[in-house]
Amino acid sequence: MAQEALSAAGSVSLWDLFWQAGFVVKLVMIGLLAASIWSWAIIIDKTMRYGAFRRQLNRFESHFWSGQSLEELYHTLSERRTNGMGALFVAAMREWKKSFEKGARSPIGLQARIEKAMDVTLAREMDNLESRLGFLATVGSAAPFVGLFGTVIGIMTSFQAIAGSQQTSLAVVAPGIAEALLATAIGLVAAIPAVVAYNKLSADAGKLGMRLEAFADEFSAILSRQIDEKLTQPR
């Protein structure tokens, strides 16, 4: 008798368990599946974008340290949309040129304006790098609890049905418990990749941000020396 009940319970597919679940549990499952799909879309998109961003940084550094004139590099980059180190470079050079066109005389004030321009650009670049990572963190932390909520509702509904039918055989109990536990399983399926990806992508974004900050510091030092040379030259 027990083997027949287990066979009957085991013959129920995941699709059948979904359709047999209550309305609230179905909503929970659908929401978790949608969150999982969107999480994977973010993971794939961010992985590709970070790879392209890293290659772009490598290309810019090779051009920047190749000995090319800063003016030539600025004219090349200012004519198109740039990001990363290119955006920092263009922001600093634009402030540099504006200040000297207006007859800047204070090296301290000019240096502060250039650093401020790069800080604003750096913050914008970091926002772009870290955008949508918060969704992964939310899914990773909330999905198991949402799935558990669906499981609790499903088990309560199953117990009510069992009490109404006045039967406690395994064939009656197992399907209701299985469909309730499916919500928790989907919650874990959504949460585990999201947590792993969030930790990995956050670390990658931090490394890219450190490269941007290092370039900003180096370029600020270069401009500082040139500011001193320009402003100390006899007029």
From TrEMBL:
All residue ranges annotated as the MotA/TolQ/ExbB proton channel domain in the record: 110-213
InterPro entries, sorted: ExbB/TolQ_transport (IPR050790), MotA_ExbB_proton_chnl (IPR002898), Tol-Pal_TolQ (IPR014163)
Transmembrane annotation, as ranges: 23-44, 133-156, 176-198
Subcellular location, record wording: Cell inner membrane; Cell membrane
A biological process from GO: bacteriocin transport
Keywords: Cell cycle, Cell division, Cell inner membrane, Cell membrane, Membrane, Transmembrane, Transmembrane helix
Topology relative to the membrane: Multi-pass membrane protein
GO cellular component, one term: plasma membrane
Its biological purpose: Part of the Tol-Pal system, which plays a role in outer membrane invagination during cell division and is important for maintaining outer membrane integrity.
PANTHER family: PROTEIN TOLQ, TOL-PAL SYSTEM PROTEIN TOLQ
Family from the record: Belongs to the ExbB/TolQ family.
Subunit structure: The Tol-Pal system is composed of five core proteins: the inner membrane proteins TolA, TolQ and TolR, the periplasmic protein TolB and the outer membrane protein Pal. They form a network linking the inner and outer membranes and the peptidoglycan layer.
Name of the protein described by the UniProt record: Tol-Pal system protein TolQ
Lineage: Bacteria, Pseudomonadati, Pseudomonadota, Alphaproteobacteria, Hyphomicrobiales
Gene: tolQ
